[in-house]
Amino acid sequence: MAQTDNKRFFENLSGAGKAIAVLTSGGDAQGMNAAVRAVVRMGIYVGAKVYFVHEGYQGMVDGGDNIKEATWESVSSMLQMGGTVIGSARCKDFRMHEGRLKAAHNLVQRGITNLCVIGGDGSLTGANLFREEWSGLLAELVQQGLIDEEASQKYSALHIVGMVGSIDNDFCGTDMTIGTDSALHRIIEVVDAIMTTAQSHQRTFVLEVMGRHCGYLALVSALACGADWVLIPEMPPEDGWEEKMCQKLSATRSRGSRLNIIIVAEGAIDRHGKAITSSIVKDLVVQRLGFDTRVTILGHVQRGGTPSAFDRILASRMGVEAVLALLETTANTPACVVSLCGNQSVRLPLMECVQMTQQVQKAMDEKRFEEAVQLRGRSFENNLKTYKLLAHRKPESELPQSNFNVAVLNVGAPAAGMNAAVRSAVRVGISEGHKMFAVSDGFEGFYKGQIKEIKWADVGGWTGQGGSLLGTKRTLPAKHIDKIAEQMRKYNINALLVIGGFETCDRIKQSASGTKHRVFIIETMGGYCGYLASVGGLAAGADAAYIFEEPFDIRDLQSNVEHLTEKMKTSIQRGLVLRNENSNENYTTDFIYQLYSEEGKGVFDCRKNVLGHMQQGGAPSPFDRNFGTKIAAKAMQWISKKLNESYRKGVGRVFANTEDSACLLGMRRRALVFQPVVQLRDETDFVHRIPKEQWWLKLRPLMKILAKYKTSYDISDSGQLEHVVLNRPKQSEAMAAI
User: Fold this and answer.
1) Are 665 and 635 in contact (CB under 8 A)?
2) What is the C-alpha R_g of the chain?
3) How far is residue 389's CA from residue 349's CA, in Å, rounded to a whole number?
4) Are 540 and 512 in contact (CB under 8 A)?
5) N or C, which terminus of the chain has less Cβ within 10 Å?
């Protein structure tokens, strides 16, 4: 990759002579191991010494074998493991000055002045205090004769970078914390399982989820499963909520539903600060409605299991960014935390985030609930708005009067989350006063007239369904445009919402972990787009990923084989290679398999697997359900706005003849953006049906670095310490954005 004047590359940053210690503290969270692995490998890659601190701050205080130098191989097979391999403990000693003095002595003895802390707000606050006291602690150590003056001068500054590892997602300044997505997976797995038994017996289930004083897990779980009611601490229900909830449950049953789901956050309270527990809710439903009601308290199962792909990628990106931040820090740089904003890693002052997090609890204690929701951040606020919009149907008399008809259809290949998007679009459209129509089988069904009105209750239970319940075909509209126009006139369709595309590596690697010196060659889908192969490779710790966007030849293949062979001669016993299905017409999966098999003889053996359409199957993940729900809600609100702007009362028609009347909604960097379709012409490779520029290509060097390849890494987007900003959107902008 050529260096340009407007780009910065991390090769200019050196860790030579530096020592970095990484520790996990507080409660464990899935993905912590991926973060530890990334810190260790990136640190070694840039020439620094990296140390494990076992058992969190307790290990730092106790010293000895609790602080060990890490090697490249010591973090192998760590990526897919839950919990934290290096251990975590809540440490009373570190809260005392004497304990921090011992910790400082143990670090100075090993020349460690860079600390990477993975934990919650308490752990990160303790790290910042340690940093502030550092010079005083060294002075005490000199005075006590435990270190000399030269060591005190050499190690005069302690640098701190934090990553938030917490399933609660209760830390201000980041959209997601490490472990949250995996916890949502555990919750949704349980909810999906419970819904089948609840439906069989016409039961109501009350599920209590974790989160301490934060309702994120409860709120997003409710969005992802279409729960009838949710109770969270940031926005307690109004007085009289008991009657309203029972009316909602009864109304759901009267429309033919055989079950009810209520989700309660463990910290849920009413407007007067009184706790609302799952048992209280159960007793209420039984006494007032007589419904057969059961309680399920998920407990620590939410912390367990393997981390999701999202958490592995998030943690890997954060770990690399943390090392870069430590390399760039100076004595005057405040302690920072690596956060996620949209799809970008950002650095924020640690204490600004901690102070805002503490303000949330203060606002709740003082019953300033609206402010507490705002302080939680844009994502939380819009999750709540979207849930309210979709879960509670307004009476017909309260709906705005609209003369617009809106049709929804799916096109292209089926994708998990499509049904959640359709449900969201239909219900938001009805809430906006529109008449909603469903089109079956994409544009093919459109021109054939497979169109019918769809009601609020028709999309109940769609959120967790895989595939496309409307049906979808790859038929393009161009050949049938006249017939489609005829159907639009027949049904008086004023707007279209089109949901679709451009028209499991983990278990395999676990299998390899149980064998000696084995390499798996995996083919992924994606057409000519290498996203699945690249990001899947990063999540699974792949050694190589071949994609169309980065051309390769026989020399690259040979180099990869030699690199993997060298690794296999050490303690590395397994390898993973991914190939996008259309990466190269000559270097097929069979060819690569045969090449690796031949060249690896005597060192490793090979297996291949073509994943095929199983990648499109199954229930949607919590992320897909949530993303589909919110992006469709935002799209419908945009359609409503455009319909009102382009409607001419005099002639009673909608005139949609401007560029911005046909837009694509998607995420760019940190925000969702509506972009006119005509503007996409210059940005799209229509032959291969992919964008000319792909944001995720910047992640590919991370996979190579973590697999021990020498490569360039563009860090132009890194390095800027930003500040926490509380967004207070105008009423007109308060749409269901992410």
Assistant:
1) yes
2) 27
3) 35
4) no
5) N
For residues 447 and 186, what is the distance between their CA atoms, to the nearest angstrom?
Answer: 42
pTM here is 0.88
Residues linked to residue 663 through DSSP beta bridges, in sequence order: 676
In the three-class reduction of DSSP (H, G, I as helix; E, B as strand; rest coil), residue 595 is classed as helix
The residue ranges of the chain whose pLDDT is under 50 are 1-6, 504-510, 514-515, 728-738
Beta-ladder partners of 436: 406
Structure tokens at 127: 């790290």
Q: Which pLDDT tens digit goes with each residue over 713-733?
A: 766 566 567 777 665 433 333
Nearest to 281 by CA among 300, 299, 261: 261
Report pLDDT digits (tens) over 623-653: 999 999 999 999 999 999 999 888 887 777 8
608 Cβ contact list (under 8 Å, min separation 6)? 520, 521, 522, 523, 589, 590, 593
Q: Please, what is the Cα angle at 603 between 600 and 609, to 5 degrees?
A: 55
Tokens of 309: 């792909």
Q: What DSSP element (H or E) covers 229? A: strand 229-231
**531-540 vs 309-328: helix axis angle to the nearest 10?**
70
The helix/strand/coil state of 206 is: strand
Contact 350, 163 (CB under 8 A): no
Assigned token pair, 217: 């897990």
Q: Any idea of the CA torsion for 101, 90, 361, 349, to the nearest 10 degrees?
A: 50
Task: Give pLDDT, residue 658.
Answer: 84
Residue holding tokens 């109304």? Answer: 251
Alpha helices in 204-263 (DSSP H): 216-225, 241-254
Q: In angstroms, rounded to a whole number, what is the distance separating the alpha carbons of residues 115 and 453?
A: 59
To the nearest 10 degrees (0 to 180), the angle between helices 350-365 and 369-376 is 160
Q: How far is CA 693 from CA 359, 501, 602, 690, in A?
A: 41, 17, 41, 8
Sequence-separated (6 or more) residues with CB below 8 Å from residue 67: 21, 51, 52, 53, 54, 59, 60, 106, 107, 110, 112
Q: Tokens 């005069």 label which residue?
A: 156
Q: Which of 62, 121, 168, 175 is catalytic?
A: 168
Partnered with residue 295 across adjacent β-strands are 206
Active site residue 168: yes
Yes or no: say if 44 and 105 are a contact pair by the CB < 8 Å rule.
Answer: no
3-state secondary structure of 260: strand
E-assigned strand segments in 440-552? 451-453, 495-500, 518-524, 544-546
**Dihedral through CA 700, CA 706, CA 707, CA 713, nearest 10?**
40
DSSP 24-87: E-SS--TTHHHHHHHHHHHHHHTT-EEEEETTHHHHHHH-GGGEEE--SGGGTT-TT--S-TT-
CA-closest candidate to residue 450, choices 459, 458, 439, 442: 439
Q: Residue type for 673, please?
A: V
Give SS3 for 294: strand
